[in-house]
Structures are given as C-alpha cells and as structure tokens.
Write a structure and sequence with these properties.
The model is unreliable at about 1-15 (pLDDT under 50). The strands form 4 sheets. A 6-stranded antiparallel β-sheet has the order 5-4-3-6-8-7. Strands 12-11-14-15-17 form a 5-stranded antiparallel β-sheet, with no helix packed on it. It is about 30% helix and about 25% strand. It is of the alpha+beta class and about 350 residues long.
C-alpha cells in the first residue's frame, strides 16, 4: 500500500490509506495484499501519471471490485494473470475520461448476477440490461465515460461498447474493444465488445447473444477487424504499438482470411520503411483501414478478409498502388514498384463477396 501512494503527498496518502483500510477491513485474509498489488500494477501501467483524487479512487476500485466478484460469484472463472490484469483491471478502453464507475455498477447489478449458472449467462444478462437502459444515438467524436452514458441514456456504438465492457470488467470478466475501421459491404464503421470466456475471445453486441448479432452474416465481407489491448499482449497478431496500447488483427478469428505480403521495391531494390496504406471503399471514397511499414526486406504482412483492398506504398515522394484480394488460408505476394509522380487511374474495380 505504501508503494502505491508514494509521491502523492502526506495528506493525499492519508486520505487513501483511510479509504483503502475501510474498503478491505471486512474482507478475508490476503484480500488487502492482492488488491494493493493489483492497484500498484494499474498505477504503473496506466497512461495518465498525474491523477486527481477521484481518478486515483477509480484505480483502487478497479482492483477492489473484480476481487470481490471472484469471491462472490460461483460462475467466476480462473483467468491467466496477463488476461486478468490487462482486460479486467485496466480502467479505460479508448479516450473516454477515467471515471469511478465500478462501485455504481456493482451495486446495481450484483444481486441479479448471483443466479447465473456460468459466465456466458452473466455476460448476456449484462447486455440485456444495457439494452434496456440505453439507446443508440450519435454524439461527439470524444467518447463519453460509462457514467455519463448511463445518465444521458444514449451513446454511439463505441460508447455503448465502453459502457457494457466496463460492467463486464467490474465483475471480473475480461473485456476489450473490437472494431471495423470501415466496412467493405456498406458505408460506416462499427465498434463492439469482445469477452474472454472459457479460454477464448467471443463477440457480443446488440441482441445480447454471444457470437451472434446483426453483422454476423456480413463478416465474410469484411476486410479488417481490429481489437485494442492495453500494453503489448503476447500470442496475438499485433499490427501497431502505441505508447500505452496495441492494435490486434482479429480478422481471421471472425471469417475466412488470407495473408497479403506487400513487397515494395524501387527498381530491383527492396525498400525499407516504406509506408503501405490499406484502404476500403466507403462513403464514396477510399478510406484508410490501417497503415504499415516495410522491413529491411521491403516486405510487410497483413491478414485480411477475402475481399478486395486498395494498397498505396509511399517513400521519398515515390508511390505505387494496386488492388489485391487475399487467397483463403494462403499468402498472396503483392508487388508494389515505386515510381515518381504515380497517380491512380480514374477507373479500377474492387470486389466484395
């Protein structure tokens, strides 16, 4: 507990010592030690380093309420430590404000989850409740926090995801954001929740049924599906690393997919550090799904759904482009030869299955 409060000032440390002591006083032996270690992990890994008192309280409750859930609910699963910390303890999903939401949701829903027979039933019950209290509505580009969404009664898809996934984490259920940057079969994009149950990730959205929702039948027409993880997880296809999070390519977990091997050259020479941008056709234009950088061999790889994508390579003012469609369960080499002042023709075709 002392290490968690280091450098926070005497009065600040005293306030949180009183809070922490009262919060764990009636808990079983070992609870305080486990929670303090988890809180220390959050403080060490969260992007924000200068937290105000309310945000620091949110960090402590991010450790306390999952621990209470593991002791209370018979359906609670034993989790790998990395999964538990990364997708249960971590208090945020995107750029939403850091809110102390866990006591609120625990007090509202804990009694209704006591009768669940397994984690799947608990997750679906959480999502049914979410659907009963919230409606979809477009908001601003900056995400609402889960409490703001609850009191407003509405949110766009990412905010509804943050709301439901925050509740899952409150009850010790690993949850993270998955999303499509742009659909290939229709205009717009979408975000939803993935939950970790029985050793694997499952998706859930409107309809509150695991692995079945409105976009299920369209997954085979989707070029790229990504998930967001705090830090850098092991054992997954990480396609981008930020200061505090990683993008994971989840396309192959949802639908048939293949690998595109982009090979960028200048003459016969492989080009290192060439930017390769991947696009889908959406809202009447080419929309970027993701960009990658080639290695010293001039290559970079991406798992994609079995639909056409537009690729643009750029380096030092030279460009190359092409339209490519992956081969199912195979690797397609996509050659891109850089040239000066290379602009796309006015007509090309992209296929959606």
């Amino acid at each position: 507990m002392v290490s968690v409060l280091k450098n926070k000032g005497k009065f600040f440390g005293f306030v949180f010592f009183v809070f922490f002591t009262s919060a764990v006083f009636f808990e079983p032996a070992g609870f305080a030690k486990d929670v303090s270690e988890d809180a220390q992990w959050i403080f060490d890994n969260i992007f924000e380093k200068n937290l105000n008192p309310q945000e620091s309280l949110a960090v402590f409750n991010s450790a306390i309420y999952p621990a209470r859930s593991y002791r209370r609910f018979l359906w609670a699963e034993n989790l790998p430590e990395d999964i538990r910390r990364r997708y249960v303890l971590y208090p945020r999903f995107s750029q939403e404000p850091l809110e102390d939401y866990r006591p609120f949701f625990f007090n509202i829903l804990a009694d209704s989850l006591d009768s669940c027979s397994d984690t799947r039933e608990a997750v679906e019950r959480i999502f049914r409740w979410t659907s009963s209290v919230l409606k979809f509505r477009q908001t601003s580009r900056r995400d609402q926090g889960p409490l703001e969404t609850y009191y407003s009664g509405f949110g766009r898809c990412e905010e509804l995801m943050i709301f439901s996934a925050s509740i899952c984490r409150t009850f010790g259920i690993p949850a993270r954001q998955a999303y499509v940057p742009y659909w290939s079969f229709t205009d717009n994009n979408h975000a939803w929740t993935e939950v970790y149950i029985g050793g694997d990730w499952h998706y859930i959205d409107e309809g509150a049924v695991l692995d079945r929702t409105w976009f299920t039948e369209y997954l085979q027409k989707t070029a790229l599906i990504l998930a967001i993880a705090p830090g850098k997880p092991e054992g997954e296809e990480v396609v981008r690393i930020f200061s505090d999070a990683s993008l994971i390519n989840r396309t192959g977990a949802y639908a048939p997919a293949g690998t595109l091997a982009f090979y960028v050259t200048d003459g016969d020479v492989p080009v290192e550090f060439s930017k390769v941008s991947i696009y889908a056709y959406n809202w009447g234009a080419l929309r970027e799904l993701i960009w990658l950088k080639t290695g010293e061999d001039g290559k970079v790889y991406l798992t994609c759904g079995i639909v056409s994508v537009f690729a643009l390579a750029e380096k030092d003012g030279k460009k190359a482009f092409g339209v490519f469609e992956p081969l199912k369960d195979d690797t397609l080499v996509c050659s891109l030869s850089l040239k000066e002042y290379m602009y796309p023709d006015t007509l090309f075709y992209m296929r959606v299955r």
